[in-house]
Design goal:
Shape: globular
Largest sheet: 6 strands, mixed
Radius of gyration: 24 Å
Number of strands: 11
Distance between the termini: 69 Å
Number of domains: 2
Amino acid sequence: MKSNKSLVLIGLFLFGIIISSRFVHADEAYPNKPIKIVVGITPGASTDFLAREVARGLSERLKVPVIVENKPGANTIIANNIVAKSPPDGYTIYLTNIVSAINPWMYTNMPYDFKKDMKNIVLLGVSDNLFAVNAKLGINNAADMIAYAKKNPGKFSYGSSGVGSIHNLMMELIAEKAQIQINHIPYKGAAAAILDTLGGNINGYCGTISSQQEFVKKGDLKPLFVTSAKRSGYMPDVPTLAEAGLPPIVAGYWMGLSAPAGTPDAIINLLNKEVNVVLSDPANIKKLSFQAIDPMGGTPADMDRFYDSELKLWKSAVSAAKVEPIALNK
């Protein structure tokens, strides 16, 4: 009888191990709960739009909710820091953008090191930048702008979304290489800067194509150049910087996905695979085109190489803009 009782207990024990291991395996399966994409930009911007489209597509493919959480502030540092300090389990990821390659040169004591604390997943898309002036100004091309700036040092004014923004740094890098002096007027957003350009309070504005294309079509803004490697499909008649006789700088507003360092390669590769499928969907390509965003895709290694090249570009741009790095209060 004792022997039979022992066999029953052993059987129950082994059964418990089998059941327990199944639960452990199920718990380890990825994904089995909601995934959060943290965005360092306010709702409504093109970055937020792209995040939500990617979230929707990923949710459909992975069969779990994928939610977007906006955490604006401190030039995206707040959002990036939240993700950098999150568990590396694939459930909290970051909507990286070009600012991630600019911030290391703008601040002296970042609370994280993007290269060490983050792991790239995939490059999502690029939105080309455009420089346009008030159509009544009489400046019709880049040569006119340079001639005006040389004749009137420091009097040619342009607006951007703020000191140290991609557009401010890019224009100062162009000015340095073209050996001209221009006057930067910082704004808190595109809308106010474009309104002042239209009203003649400043001469021009540098920003994304999507923020200006309506005014270009109406003839209120005169586009001078785009900052892409080749002409933009959204502004095919506008020359590139190289074609305009300016330094051939390639600087689009790019966005990607990144995760905390330590996230398993299996999770990174799964997310990369599924996002590439989402980006290649014709319906999604059409949606992104309305925001003048070109989908990119590729491998995590592709994004690593791209990010490294961006670091070099924006280091030189910050130097050209003579921006003094700011000490952050961590």
